[in-house]
Amino acid sequence: MAAFTLLISPDQFDLSKPLTVVADGKTVFQGTVNPSVATLLKWAAMDNDRTMLFAAEVPVSLGN
Questions:
Q1: How far does CA 36 lie from the centroid of its chain?
Q2: What residue ranges do the domains of the chain occupy?
Q3: Are 33 and 21 within 8 A, CB to CB?
Q4: I want to staple 62 with a disulfide (CB 3.0 to 4.6 A). Which of 2, 12, 16, 54 is the partner?
């Protein structure tokens, strides 16, 4: 089974509104995501790039 983590930037998405993720033509996530300081710090430490700030993450599984 394929899977990935979708990183959500508050610069690109309004986190107060529901988010729909479509992969391979199927809705794989629908709902709201909550910004997380832990997520922000985790990805900032890995990327070491202040222009790429990700406040939320959505794990996505592409099941058969």
A1: 11
A2: 2-62
A3: no
A4: 2
